[in-house]
Amino acid sequence: GSFPARYCTKDPVRDSFCLDNSYQAFLLVDDGSVGRRGGDMVFRTNLEEYISHQRTGMWGSGTIDIPVLCMLISGDTGMFERVDLSLKSSIPWLVLAGSGGLADFLTDLLESTSSASVLQSSSECDSEPGPSMDLKEKVAERVKKHFPAESENNKLVEQVGSVYLFLW
């Protein structure tokens, strides 16, 4: 935007965080919203997609595309949307099994299902191929197992169904 961001804190000592001095640069993104998480998701997805279409060499004259790989370590249910947006833009994810949260959930789901048994073929019904009822039941079961405190289980099942189709 055309204005500087100002962040006020009640307790500057307790509410302050240091940036890791191991890095040369930071890209800080603020969409202007207050009290809402995830405002950076669309920006990040668009930036990753833009970078993935660039080429190496002076002024992009090289023949090698710049690879982009997202990494999922743990993660909460809010990361479903982030993973889904990136996968729809063909940005791959490396999921670190055993790190907890969403990473363990996705690993568990992939290990417990097979593509042959959970996808409907278009000849079975008039709609587009998609998650079968068997998959939805397995996903719902695993959502309850990995995220027992979540109140919106049905919404999570639908989000996972969208992400799952990209994982195969």
From TrEMBL:
InterPro entries per the UniProt record, alphabetical: TRPM, TRPM_SLOG
Domain of life: Eukaryota
Pfam family, one: LSDAT_euk
Start and end residues of each TRPM SLOG domain: 12-153
The protein, known as: TRPM SLOG domain-containing protein
